[in-house]
Amino acid sequence: MELSSPVRFVKGVGEARERALLRLGVRTVEDLLFFFPRRYEDRRCITPLSDLAEGGFASVVAEVVSFESRPAYRKGSYQKGFEVASALFSDGKDTVRAVWFNKPHLGDVVTPGARVALYGKVERRGGLQLSNPEFEVLDESDPESVGRIVPVYPATAGLSPKWVRRIVFSALDLYLSEVKDYLPDEIVRKYGFSDLRGSVTELHKPQSRESWLKARNRLAFDELFLLQAGLLLRKKLRSSARADSVSVAMKAGEKFDALLKSIPFKLTGAQERVIQEISSDLASVTPMNRLLQGDVGSGKTAVAVAALVIAVDSGFQAAFMVPTEILAQQHFFRLKASLENIGINVELLTGSLSSSARKEALDATASGKAGLVVGTHAIFGKKVAFKRLGLVIIDEQHRFGVMQKNALMAKTRSPHVLVMTATPIPRALTLSIYGDLDVSLLDELPPGRKPIKTYRLRSSQSGELMRFINDKARQGRQIYWICPLIEESEQLDLSAAYSRFLNLKKRLPELRVELIHGQLPTGEKEAVMSAFEAGEVDLLVATSVVEVGVDVPNATVMVIEDAAHFGIAQLHQLRGRVGRGEEESHCVLLVGKSTPEGAARIDAVLSTSDGFKLAEMDLRQRGPGEICGVRQHGVTDFRVADLTRDRKLMERARQEAAELIAKDPGLQKARGLAEALVSRLGAALELAGIA
User: Fold this and answer.
1) Are 375 and 328 in contact (CB under 8 A)?
2) What stretches of 576-670 show up as alpha helix (H) in DSSP?
3) What radius of gyration do the chain's Cα atoms show?
4) Which of 39, 304, 583, 681 is the most exposed place for a label (fewest CB within 10 A)?
């Protein structure tokens, strides 16, 4: 059996369990070997029941004395279909009760006389109890389950942690010898790393904290080194490619000069610097691949427009792809109004265009009449053809999948590419996701922008908030009210946009109140947003559909309901929809019931308006995959490495990868590394042709 063989061929797996393992991301034999525990239980030192302390977590081993299950009693009555299971355990000297919620069929395995290992939080409910603990019914014939540090693996429906442990240990015995070490010997010696196979074994069967940490750091470095080598090689490949085969270097011309004269504001120093960086890239036949980062309100769109005009000045077409129809329409109308005055035809391509409007846009794009095409993912549709596409700009690019971006860029040969994000990205994440791109940073806000005042209000203070909103509306200002859901949900006790819309119309009868959300027909969304931009709507109730890019300078109040249920970056983005004019702006975070994590997110947003500081906090709390919007195997979804704590390892890995590639660009002396790059990162990083 090869490491790339499907996991179903491992003895004891089969097709049914393979489907369950796929849900855990385990597809091959190699995935199984590198499927590491999520935590460990030290069953060498079990806590006696008499030593349990309220408020802490504990591991215990005890025997089931009795078990019962009954309907849950909530809100004055028994809840049909919602069970509470309770078991009494004894270790021979003391007893403790464990309670589980809605665990059907638990009584089939937690039976009187069974010996069970439990891990959970100790709480006081009359007496001490373990609340919803994890557990494992012990098998005395299994020497791996007691008297040692026991790995606890992620589980899923149809697979218990005990079964996963058994199948992983079996794979270690049978297939670990097939694992090849691709890390160069000189790097292993330089850092005193342990052997690869030994490190894998140690993470599954740790002997001590020290040996586990040494093995863990070795494997984390491996992942980071492989990623950095792949990114640097991809950058090298791109730099050796040439831009469109019929192109010459792009340069600014008459249209660009006309654009600068027409801009009604003075560019910031940061905008001028970044435009120069992009202009230098476009002036080369080597394709540009640049990331433009900037906090909310820093003026990324103005920079993007400058790049688009340079492309059109040079006889090329440009594509501007954005994640939502609302944003596409907003960009289209504004760019059409400003660019057609300097002789650039702008077309809109979205999925909801009428057939006649779509045909007109497709014809203009194919003939070259359209100098700039603004749109959503509809731009990369099969029927969309460009005559001479030279520049692709992708806004909020993390919202698009790899294949979507590839489909757009495949419409020409090696176009210049600029990706933009208004979500500031921590340096560690920039290196891991965008390490093959050049980075430009807009670190200066336009003059005259006032800091947005941010407040936390309890739901009980809504009367005070209504008076505040009324006052601002009388002053001619506009208000956003953001809700996390469209309709009421039985599962989540959150305010819904529709019911809040009706409620606010009733409570604020003098105001013109409208509703917008992602499920509205495009025509209705466009009409509502147009009315809001024109000042014909005082209060706009919305979901997070307005999170990115929407720009209404007269809107000075942002209310975010159930704010603790939004992420840090999302709260910061929503707050950035106000404060875009010269008037003082306010962001109100309405908070009801919350978790400690939710309260921490609110505290973070209240503590600073610096998007990069908030991004660091977000990375620590949520992890890289969630921030990027997509978890890419080998890119953000590391098996071992953690970008929030492995920054030094990341820097070392990048340095070592750069030195290796400088000495051996074709990896002729590191064939194991070349093979690993193709087999592990080929799909995620488009590395075909490296080996």
Assistant:
1) yes
2) 596-607, 611-622, 624-628, 647-663
3) 29
4) 39
Residues 60 and 147 in one domain: yes
pLDDT-based confidence at 461, cuts 50/70/90? confident
Are residues 350 and 497 both part of a single domain?
no
Tens-digit pLDDT profile for residues 281-329 = 999 888 888 889 888 778 888 999 999 999 999 999 999 998 888 788 8
What is the total count of domains within the chain?
Answer: 5
Q: Is the pLDDT of residue 88 over 80?
A: yes
Q: Are 504 and 561 in contact (CB under 8 A)?
A: no
8: which 2 tokens?
A: 């179903």
| Residue carrying the six token digits 């609302």 | 326
- The Cα 539–Cα 523 span in angstroms is 20
Other Cβ atoms within 10 Å of 470 Cβ, number: 17
CA dist 147 and 261 (Å) reads 77
User: What's the rounded Cα separation, in Å, for the pair 637 and 502?
Assistant: 42
Mean local confidence (pLDDT), 257-271: 89
**What are the tens digits of pLDDT across the range 538-568?**
999 988 766 555 678 899 999 999 898 888 8
Q: 374 — phi, psi (to 5°)?
A: -105, 135
**Integer angstrom CA distances of residue 358 from 355, 361, 366, 367:** 5, 5, 12, 14
Q: Is the dihedral of CA 98, 104, 110, 116 positive or negative?
A: negative
As given in the structure block, the two tokens for residue 84 are 């509470």
- pLDDT tens column, 114-124: 999 888 889 99
Kindly state whether residues 510 and 376 are assigned to the same domain: no
Q: Where are the beta strands (DSSP E) in 102-146?
A: 115-125, 127-137
Instruction: Check: CB of residue 142 under 8 Å from CB of residue 89.
Output: no
Q: Which of 378, 402, 421 is the last residue of a domain?
A: 421
Identify the CATH number of the domain in which residue 522 sits: 3.40.50.300
- The answer to whether residue 87 scores a pLDDT higher than 90 is yes
Q: Could you tell me the CA-to-CA distances from 533 to 370, 527, 550 in Å, in that order?
A: 26, 10, 10
Taking 50 as the threshold, does the pLDDT of residue 634 lie above it?
no
4 and 77 together in one domain = no
- Is residue 261, in this structure, part of any structural domain at all? yes
How many alpha carbons lie under 13 Å from residue 6 in its C-beta half-sphere? Answer: 10
In a domain, 199, yes or no: no
* 315 in the same domain as 276: yes
467 and 575 assigned to the same domain: yes
> Are the CB atoms for 292 and 418 separated by under 8 Å?
yes
Looking at the fold, whether 46 and 66 belong to one and the same domain comes out as: yes
Q: What is the pTM of this model?
A: 0.65
pLDDT digits (tens, 9 = 90+) for 12-70: 898 889 999 998 889 999 999 999 998 888 777 788 999 988 888 888 899 999 999 88
Phi, psi dihedrals of residue 66, rounded to the nearest 5°: -155, 160
Instruction: Quote the domain boundaries for residue 538.
Output: 453-608
Nearest to 250 by CA among 320, 310, 317: 310
